[in-house]
Amino acid sequence: MAVCSTLVIARKYSEYAVAGLLGVVVTQALGYGLIFDLNFFLRNLSVMGGLLMVLSDSWVRKRFAPAGLPQLEEKDRKMYVQLGGRVLLVFLFVGFVFAGEWSIWRVMVSLIGLVACVMVVVGFKAKLSAVMLVVVLSIFNVLVNNFWTLHPHHPHKDFAKYDFFQILSIV
Fold this sequence. Notes:
Layout lengths: L1 H9 L3 H19 L5 H21 L15 H16 L1 H8 L5 H19 L3 H19 L12 H14 L1
Helix pairs in contact: 1-2, 2-3, 3-4, 3-5, 5-6, 6-7, 7-8
């Protein structure tokens, strides 16, 4: 995991690094046995979306073209992978919407976030919408996964810490 992360940051062998990190995400889901937990599943889909965005960013135009075989242009392939990555990234916010108790404030934030999610997926004012989602998810992360307030031997401290840092890495 550390080697693949370093390769992604260094922008070297990105395809292999992304494949390795996708393998880590799937292995964690199976290893922890939380594959059927909705929040964990949506968070993992969001991580995969981020990895797809890294993959699409790393692709460059290749000059090899076999004669007579129809191919997608590199630009088209990058566009489709970016769209898939954007859609999967939105699942982190969807997990936030379905977790916890409902209140009037939660409904309002969820509706605003839903509009922002659609804008991110479509690509309309995506940067502004993404900033708004980052702010909402960061506040949510600090309020819900506050592992620092739990007793050192509390049984949920490790889960809260894991959730906090995983959401932080996605955001």
